[in-house]
Amino acid sequence: MNFVKEPKQRVYTDELEKKAIEFHGHGGPFMIIGLRMGILALELLDAKGWFSLDCVVNLNWSPPDSCVIDGIQSSTGCTMGKRNIKVVEESGVAAKFTHKGSAVKIVVRDEVLHRASVVFDEGDEAVNEFMDWLTQVDEKQLFHTV
Question: Is the pLDDT of residue 1 over 80?
Answer without folding.
Answer: no
